């Protein structure tokens, strides 16, 4: 695994956003935020490159925004 500064920084930032969403989802009993937060906190361990890591995070957050605005969950 290639640990350069960019992937380490992106991993920490995405993980921090995920942890924040997870805590918010748990306290407010909001399943979409809880699930997306858990995924955001865990998946950077398995994606070594910065580009795909950021793309997945953006896609997950966009999906979360869509689901919440549509009132699906």
Topology:
Layout: H1 5-28, H2 31-42, H3 50-70
Briefly, what is this?
The protein is mostly helical and 73 residues long. Helix content is 78%, strand content 0%. The chain has one domain (5-70).
Q: Strand tally, please?
A: 0
Relative helix content: over 70%
Sheet with the most strands, sense and barrel status: none
Kindly give the count of domains: 1
Supply Rg: 13 Å
Summarize the structure in words.
The protein is mainly alpha-helical. It has one domain (5-70). 78% of the residues lie in helices and 0% in strands. α1 packs parallel to α3 (50-70) and α2 (31-42) packs antiparallel against α3. The longest helix is centred in the first third of the chain and has 24 residues, at 5-28.
Q: What are the salient characteristics of this protein?
A:
mainly alpha; single chain; 0% strand; 3 helices; elongated; 73 residues
């Amino acid at each position: 695994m290639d640990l350069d500064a960019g992937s380490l920084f992106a991993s920490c930032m995405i993980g921090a956003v995920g942890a924040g969403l997870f805590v918010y989802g748990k306290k407010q009993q909001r399943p979409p935020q809880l699930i997306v937060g858990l995924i955001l906190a865990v998946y950077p361990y398995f994606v070594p490159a910065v580009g795909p890591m950021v793309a997945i995070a953006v896609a997950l957050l966009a999906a979360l925004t869509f689901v919440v605005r549509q009132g699906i969950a």
